Structures are given as structure tokens and as C-alpha cells.
Amino acid sequence: MPEISVSSLDPRVQKQLENAQTALHRGNFDYVIEVTTQVLKASPACLPVRRLQRAAQMKLFQSKNKLSTKLFGGVTQAGFLFSGSKKEPGKTLENAEKLLASDPTSIPALKLLAEAAAGMDLLETVGWAWECIHELHPNDRDSLLSMGEAYLTAKRPKDALRAADLLLKIRPQDGDALNLMRKASIAQTMNKGNWEDQGSFRDKLRDEAQAVSLEQASKMVTSEDMTERLIKEAQERHEKQPDNLNHFRTIIDGYKKLNKLEDAIIWVKKVRQLPTGAADTTFEKLETDLHIQLLEKRIKDLETALAAAPGDAEAKTNLDTARAELAKFRITDAKGYVERYPNDFGARFTLAQLYFDLHDYQNAIANFQYAQKNPKVRVAALSGMGRALKARKMFDLAVAQFQSAKSEITAMDDNKKEVIYELADCFEKMGKKEEAIAEYKIIYADDIGYRDVSDKINAFYAG
What we know:
mainly alpha; 24 helices
């Protein structure tokens, strides 16, 4: 079963994945996991979908503060804790996916995934599974070796060489690592040297020796130099295969690593001019993300300049302009998305927040109201609508929103304390001191140090 691309999936599925990618950017990880799980059931060979799913799983796992307690579980522990049948790789894959859904940092589960993918001849997925293990346990010798061998099997000798290089940095005289480097160098030479072409056997051996020498020398090359080299090689391949999207991805990723965002945007625009690039929605989102990163970088540079010269009026004007440009770009992007998908109420919440930050409270109120239809953001939308109404001095309407939010939050956490505080503040502004102090007392009874609640309570009794 060969791996497949997103562009080969049904257009309706591609649209779902486009929504999922946007949802990941907006922090709606549950939605991403739900969509990708359904897609992978029908198309387990689509590695980009699996990557998207893992990104959401890891973000969700981190947000629940579980990472610190489970991360870096022993790699050398039996990846055999979970039995998988080589005769039934599909069942093994299903077991691995279930385990990773509950704990994406599980090393045994990732090993099980690699085993299942190998049984289904999904060689890129095998390599990716070992990449995930390496990310969790970067200095584990056996994982690095397995990752390198997986790269070799997937006919990715350059990546296998990098794995061998990493391993030799940990163990300079590791025989298995040296053997991996030799095999990968030979494979790369065969790929580049066209062994079937004319030329003597000795010439080919000379090429192999040169390849090994170059890889040994690469240990002294900085990562930045390596990235520049990869970009150059990808550009050369692009000239020969101008429609190959993978070359574009390598170039764009390289420029991102070098923080050359303008160059990355140029190449994204180029690929989106191709029919296949225009059909791949990941490039559309990538262009948006790069523009935001570029504007954020510009703002950071201007903030640094203004900090060095606080009285520079021109620097302050430039900073204000850049901030306004970023806000405008974000809201234009969010509005465009909501117009395409009006029933994505989570996206409505994001748009409402952007309007609120721009002090456009009327539009914020309208979108917070829509967002309340999404159970995942309902309480936050109630609170947001209350703050927007409060900003417009519609205190009685704001009180109703804060009271609803208060009733729907069960635990007395910081979120509930903030809602109660806002509710009390509205009562104060309406001149209802008794109602206000009753709300402040609720916070005081649980957390005497919360904001200025203690001062308010003391002033009330002193009065």
C-alpha cells in the first residue's frame, strides 16, 4: 500500500482537512483530532493527515499539563508491551492509534505504529514514527539507528546520513552508525551517480569515496550552512521538475528555518500559481501564517528600536502602523474564513476577540453571540459578550451575560473568579453596592489575594 497525498483524496475530504488546519491554528484541537481520525480510517496511507493529527494531539496533551509527568518515558522499555500481529498490520495500526490518542508521547505506541506501517509497506510512515520517537528521546542510540535504517528503506539516504551523523556525535566510534553512514553514502551516490550510465567501475567507487568524505566533513558545517545547501539543491531540482510540489516545500521550509520570511513568501506565491499548488490548501494557510510571522517580526524589531530610543517619534509611528497592519490582516483573514464557513462558531469566537481588541464592540457582540452556539467556547463567549457590553456601558445587559457565565462554570477557578469580578464591577458601576459586595465576598471567601478584592471588602466594612 503506497503512501498517498492529500490532493488525491476526495475534494470534500480535502475541504474538511482545510477546516481542520485552520482549527489547529485557532486552538480547536478536538475538532482537528475528530476530522483526522475519520479520514485516517478510510485512508491510513495519507501521512500528511497523520502529521496533522499528531500536531493536534500533542498540543491538546500539553494544554492538559500531562506532558511533564509522562514525557520521555523509557525508549528501551519493551515496545513489546502491546502485542501486534505482523499478519494483521491493520489491527496493529488500530491499536497503536488508540494508544496514541490517549497518550501521544507513548514510546511503545509509536513503535507499534512503526511496526504496523512496515507491515502495510508504508515506508514513509515508518520513518516518521521513528522521527516522533527521536523528538521525544533525542539522545537514544537505538532509536536513532532505527530511524536511519527506516530512512534507508524509504530510499531517503540523505536523511539516513543525518541520522548517522547525529549518532556519531553521541558515540563517535559506534560501528553500527559507521555502517549506516557507509550504506547511506553508497545509496546516495547511486542515486546521484546514475550507475547504469557510462563510466568505469573505478570512477563510481571514487564518487562513493567522495560522498563519504563529504558527509564526514559535513559534521563541521553549521546547521545554517546545511540549510542553505538544501535550499540550493532543491532549487536545482525545481529547475528540472518545476511542477514538483515537494521541491517547493523544501525551499520554503529552508527559508523559514533561516528566518528569511520574505523569500519564503515569494516561493509560496510561486507554488500557488501552479494548478496543483492552488488545489493544495496547505499553501494558502502557509502564506497567511508567513505574513503574520513577518508582521510580528517587524513589530518586534520596531519595539526593540523604540526601547533603545524612547523619544523617537518616527519609531513610535512606525510601530503603531505595523501593529495596525497586523490587526487589519488578522481580522481580514478571520472575516474571510467566517464568510466561507458561517457555521464554524469557534471561528466566530476568534473573530469576536479580534473585533474586541480593536474596540469594535458592536461587531464583537454580534460574533460573541453566534459563538455561544459552540459548547466548547460558550462560557468564554458569554464572558466576552459581557465585556463588550460593559465597554459600551450597557451594564444591565452585561450583568445578564456574566450571570449566565457564572452559573455555567462549576469549579471556583481563575476563570470563574474573573467572571464574578466583572459582574461585581458592573454592579458597582450601576450604583448597586450591596449586590457588588455580595459578589466580591464570593471571591474573598475562596481567594483573599485575588486582585483588589481584599481592599474592597475592607473598605466596605470600614465604611
